[in-house]
Amino acid sequence: MGFVQLNASDDASLTHILEESIKLLPEVTDAGYTGYATIDQEFGAIFIKPNSTVEDFNKNFAGFFNLTQLPGIQGAVGAQASTWDGYVANILQDPNIGTNIQDPSRLLTRDVINKKADELARFLVKNPGGGFNFSK
User: Fold this and answer.
1) Would strands 2-8 and 42-48 be described as parallel, antiparallel, or unpaired?
2) Residue 6 placed within a domain
3) Which residues pair with 39 in a beta bridge?
4) What sign has the CA pseudo-torsion 101, 62, 131, 117?
5) Residue at 30 is within a domain
6) Is 133 among the domain residues?
7) Which structural domain range is residue 71 located in?
8) If we measure between CA atoms, which residue out of 98, 105, 124 comes closest to residue 11?
9) 131 in a domain, yes or no?
10) Distance between CA atoms of 133 and 53, rounded to whole angstroms?
């Protein structure tokens, strides 16, 4: 299991975070990760992939890590080795757990995500407080 937390210093940085994060999600879900995210002057997400490793997470989330290095953006990207105790402590106590099964497939096509991520990012910045689930 892993997380991405990207904080923006202003709306322009937030728009950039969201646009790039949206573009990265198809690769992450194609690699077998699922989860949910929240947006409110930040992009925060929890990702789960059964039987995954920290090395696999680091490989698939390198694009998110690269975003933490940009000016105006602060953040962290990390993974924990998935053990039952870790899962219980970090995930099962979360009130949103299980909501990702409500959206069992990608609602936007890869083409729309790649070509219109900027429009979606601007919409999300103008309408803060959103959350969404993602899977393949």
Assistant:
1) antiparallel
2) yes
3) 43, 130
4) negative
5) yes
6) no
7) 2-126
8) 124
9) no
10) 22
90-118 residue pLDDT tens: 555 555 555 444 444 456 777 888 888 88
pTM, full prediction:
0.75
What pLDDT was estimated at residue 31?
Answer: 92
Q: Which residues contact 64 (CB under 8 A, 6 or more apart)?
A: 4, 6, 21, 24, 77
Mean pLDDT of 32-43: 84
Q: Which helix (H) or strand (E) holds 105?
A: none
Measure Cα distances from 77 to 70, 93, 107, 123 in Å: 14, 21, 25, 25
Query: Residue 102's pLDDT is what?
Result: 43
**What phi, psi does 45 have (nearest 5°)?**
-145, 150
pLDDT for 39-78, tens place per residue?
888 888 888 887 888 999 999 999 999 999 988 889 999 9
For the chain, how many structural domains are there in total?
A: 1
**What gap in Å lies between CA 17 and CA 42, rounded to an integer?**
8
Q: Where residue 78 sits, what CATH number does that domain have?
A: 3.30.70.600
